[in-house]
Amino acid sequence: MKVLVINSGSSSLKYELFEMRQRTSLARGLLERIGEPGSRLLHHGRDSAGQADELVREQPVPDHRAALRLVQTVLHQTGAIADSAELLGIGHRVVHGGEAFQQPTLINQRVLEAIRRQIPLAPLHNPANLLGIEVALAEYAHVPQVAVFDTAFHHTLPPHAWHYALPAELYQRHGIRRYGFHGTSHQYVSGRAAEILGRPLIELNLIVLHLGNGASATAVRGGRSVDTSMGFTPLEGLMMGTRCGDLDPAVIFFLTRDAGLSIDQIDALLNKDSGLRGVCGANDMREVLRRAAAGDPRAQLAVEMYCYRVKKYVGAYMAALGHVDAIVFTAGIGENSAEVRAGSCRDLDGLGISLDPARNASSSGGPRAIHSDGSRVQVLVVPTDEELEIAAQTVACIQAASDAPGAPGAPDAPRQPGARGEAGEVRGER
């Protein structure tokens, strides 16, 4: 039971092939510089003896159709896929589902159009995601394909958490509200944390900290997202590699009126030249920590700011949840930086959070507990696997559809922002 996961970017195509009976990865790769000079595919798989094998292809790749065909060729040549009939389905990462999608959805023409209508909410991501879907539909016409949305996990936010204190018509007419992102990662990590703790997810209150170049925090009650740090866009919330995170909105007015910057310049400034990069000139946390250890005051300030922002969200979400069973670190920085984990939990003993220095410093790459024996709140490191989560959701979606013959791939009646369903939750064509 093989599932191919595709994450299509504007000039890249990331993919991973899974055997879902064993939930194991058979092959994965990244094709970069599509439509540009120097296109390069780096493929990781297994040779005929089952040993890890790496393959590099450097050749012109003019567009995404050529990119997918090259990926197909490599998967066939390496024996990962002998025939497309082996594929149970293809799962596609889609960044923004808006209010249209609450769950993974079988792709048909109506779903494509609904995703296209979300482009104003994610102009940098959804067009590339759509392009990958359209190419895959043409190349694998007889394979069921599923869209899995980064925003879907956060559809359970209560209205008081997702509303902004703005005039109501801005939400009703333009959909301005908190959506949240990194949902696939937060969902996967929450489930793995429950397995590690040996308790049903429905019984747990968790704070999941996805700390990578992009970073977000989510409060998870009983497996449902009830608050999250990213908002209308991924710019809000924690300090990140190049994004500023939380900011007084009046700074934008000042930059326009007094610094003479255009809206496009401010957009680039806040998204690409702020965060760690803005404070100390580097956005790779490894480099920032190296420079901080060498005595660079700007790098030291950047690390202190980064950890302080994380700590503030931990405290806020402890208040929102009432009690917390575990704090979970994940993603590149969260999984690998003992310094950031220590800084983010420092002086939180009064909240029942205490790390064990030796456990925290362990270089083990797997899931692990890093709290001290006396800590009331458990602290875990859980590697994320968004691709495996997409594959699992793809299987579940296809199986649910096969169990209910004739079920549509999209909802019956699209609704506009502001349409309300049961229990006061916002319902759309999710």
Short account of what is shown:
With 430 residues, the protein is of the alpha/beta class.
Describe this structure in words.
The chain is 37% helix and 19% strand. It contains 15 helices and 14 strands. The strands form two sheets. An eight-stranded mixed sheet has the order 5-4-3-2-1-6-8-7, with helices on both faces. Helix 6 crosses helix 15 and helix 10 packs across helix 11.
Give the count of helical stretches: 15
What's the CATH first level of the largest domain?
Answer: Alpha Beta
Counting helices, strands and paired strands, the structural category is alpha/beta
In angstroms, what separates the terminal alpha carbons? 27 Å
The CATH topology label of the largest domain is Nucleotidyltransferase, domain 5
The CATH architecture of the largest domain can be named as 2-Layer Sandwich
Instruction: Detail the poorly predicted runs.
Output: 408-430
H-E order: EEEEEHEEHHEHHHEEEHHHHHEHHHEEH
Radius of gyration over alpha carbons?
22 Å
Proportion of strand residues: 15-25%
